[in-house]
From TrEMBL:
GO terms for molecular function: fructose 1,6-bisphosphate 1-phosphatase activity; metal ion binding. Residues 216-345 form the Fructose-1-6-bisphosphatase class 1 C-terminal domain. Pathway: Carbohydrate biosynthesis; Calvin cycle. Its EC number is 3.1.3.11. It comes from Panicum virgatum. The lineage of its organism: Eukaryota, Viridiplantae, Streptophyta, Embryophyta, Tracheophyta. This is Fructose-1,6-bisphosphatase, chloroplastic. One of its GO terms (biological process) is fructose 6-phosphate metabolic process. One of its GO terms (cellular component) is chloroplast.
Length: 346
């Protein structure tokens, strides 16, 4: 008789986090913060899945600090994320796309970590049930910066203290990830030891490890740009874009894939290779995407997978934000593809 098949070793996000903690890769506080983020993502996934049924599509009727119409789910996702982080008791400061300024978590709860996030990126896709996602990054508190400012006696408000502690280069990130709400709910995470992919099993509401140490292909012939902005681009960028349409020595031009949701376009780029770009243009001098909670976390992830994140000239992770909602141009994906556009833009 054949021996009983060894049971498949099922690793959930919870067991994976505890394993990293036991190995000393992350501390107990980080384990708790990441677990609370995964809980927020599960709650948002449930809301997104039933949005048309529970009348959660459409606009909230308010405008956020970006001047964008807030969707009902933008507001709710922000509350879900903030509440999960506050109740974790291990978060010190949170900075959200949906909040004008960073928020210091009240003393009774607070821990140390600084969490930046976009609670529901690509929410304009919700009404058409196209993929959306949550993006997050985690920093250690920036004490030396605070001490220096306090010595000079220039820090006079909690808000300023928060802004100072939040404005760090992406190279300081301790952890970054995203949750994509698509045909599957996919939780992607790095704590600096490679990129791990978890898939939500709706049967019992756990994220299950489905890919480890993901490596992005060095090159890839898929590009994700909004070419509707072509007329507004610099000439050098137009030359790059035109070059993608020539058959080249492989005899085949590139393929265009663009869903208008950074998380969906990025996840496909991470697994299949290629490039996602949101350039500056005559209308948006610094592009559209925000450095702190979109470009930096995604660049940390792509570098952990052997890829590259650039503003067209420099490494995204080397840029220190001066303002929490600061925008930067973003070119991210396979090393060869990002280097190709950088050459055109030089
Ligand atoms: P456009 C969504 O609003 C977002 O921030 C990203 O998720 C997405 O890639 C981009 O903007 C889409 O912008 O101008 O092409 O509609």
């Amino acid at each position: 008789t054949s021996s009983a098949k060894s049971s498949y070793e099922l690793v959930t996000l919870t067991t994976w986090l505890l394993k990293q903690e036991r190995a000393g890769v992350i501390d107990n506080e980080m384990t708790i913060v990441l677990a609370s983020i995964s809980t927020a993502c599960k709650q948002i996934a449930a809301l997104v899945l039933r949005a048309p049924i529970s009348n959660l599509t459409g606009v909230q009727g308010a405008v956020n600090v970006q001047g964008e119409d807030q969707k009902k789910l933008d507001v709710i996702s922000n509350e879900v994320f903030s509440n999960c982080l506050k109740s974790s008791g291990r978060t010190g400061v949170i900075a959200s796309e949906e909040e004008d300024v960073p928020v210091a978590v009240e003393q009774s709860y607070s821990g140390n970590y600084i969490v930046v996030f976009d609670p529901l990126d690509g929410s304009s896709n919700i009404d058409a049930a196209v993929s959306t996602g949550s993006i997050f990054g985690i920093y250690a508190p920036n004490d030396e910066c605070l001490a220096e400012i306090e010595d000079n006696g220039t820090l006079d408000s909690v808000e300023q203290r928060c802004v100072v502690s939040v404005c760090q280069p992406g190279s300081n990130l301790l952890a970054a990830g995203y949750c994509m709400y698509s045909s599957s709910v996919i939780f992607v995470l790095t704590v600096g030891t490679g990129v791990y992919v978890f898939t939500l099993d709706p049967m019992y509401g756990e994220f299950v490890l489905t890919q480890e140490k993901v490596q992005i292909p060095k090159a890839g012939k898929i590009y994700a740009f909004n070419e509707g902005n072509y007329a507004l681009w610099d000439d050098k960028l137009k030359q790059y874009m035109d070059s993608l349409k020539e058959p080249g020595d492989s005899g085949k031009p590139y393929s265009a894939r663009y869903i208008g949701s950074l998380v969906g376009d990025f996840h496909r780029t991470l697994l299949y290779g290629g490039i996602y770009g949101y350039p500056r243009d005559k209308k948006s001098k610094n592009g559209k995407l925000r450095l702190l909670y979109e470009c930096a976390p995604m660049s940390f992830i792509v570098e952990q997978a052997g890829g590259k994140g650039s503003d067209g000239h420099q490494r995204i992770l080397d840029i220190t934000p001066t303002e929490i909602h600061q925008r930067v141009p973003l070119y991210i994906g396979s090393v060869e593809e990002v280097e190709k556009v950088e050459k055109f833009l030089a």
